[in-house]
Prior knowledge:
The chain is of the alpha+beta class. 18% of the residues lie in helices and 36% in strands.
Amino acid sequence: MKKLTKTKKGQVLWSLLVTSMTWTLVFSVYLYDQNRRKEIYESINLLFKDNTILEYGTETYNPINFIKKASGNVSVISTKVDLNQVGKGKITYEVEKENITKTFTVDVEVQDTKLPEIKIKKEEISLYVGDSYDLKENIESVVDPVDGEIPYIEKNQINENTVNAYSILGDVDFNKAGEYTLTVKAIDKNGGSIEKSFKMKVNERPVPKSILANVTYSNNGPSADVNKVKELAYSYLGYPYVSGGSSPSGFDCSGFVAYIYSQVGLTLPRSSSGQAFYGQNILKQNISVGDVLIWSSDGVHATHTGIYVGDGVMIHAANARKGVIESNINSWPQTLLGIKRP
């Protein structure tokens, strides 16, 4: 091989030197850029607010609202949140600064903080012993603000797993006077529950005041031939009952009494209420043949009459099915308001 001349040798060395310096410069620039990018990347930050809770049933939301502070331009990459389902979700953000990006993820939670709303009609209900009442009648509405109307179930169906239902807890003895507390419990689809109470007062039923209360009693003799009254009353046993009737073609109760007495010369009022105020007031222990018995189906008003014929028996036009019959006055199923002697 030919030896390199000094000139050529110098040229080669110079070329190597230039190449080495170029690569050194390129590498230095690369290292500088990497360090710069690293510093920028590390300086990128995204701070979130303390509250990252979303309300169940919300139609929409803005993920940017969760950001407290950002050191660059923020964009949302992805959201994995179901507003119609209580639980956790994630939102991923990208922050850009000087063409360098960094991703951040925040955990969010969907919560149902809106409890059902219970509206009742009355805070307190008052009734009498023996009355009946459907407790659901006092419930105006039970509604969840998101999911709407909540259905009713019986209280024995309520358990720890019950959702989307309401019931009325507590018992009322309608046959016993007292004050009872009823609690309406409503549970929404997500297990949130609320209660509201109302009172039920069961009062002793007042003793009705008869239309014949506070009357003056006497025991004078009858104004008519009572034996004839008894004989006539028996003679019409089996005759038909006709509402508004007062003749042998058909009697109602007061029509029968008025007709029998008309046959012995006395004119009695045509109605039961009128007969209740006609004649002497007689105590039960002084009852006698021919006396008119005043009966009531409500303990207050005269609703039925009959003629006493002795031995605890009356003859009367009972009803359309039985017609004119005789009945034991101690077993007749109405209240004896009074006894009148025409």
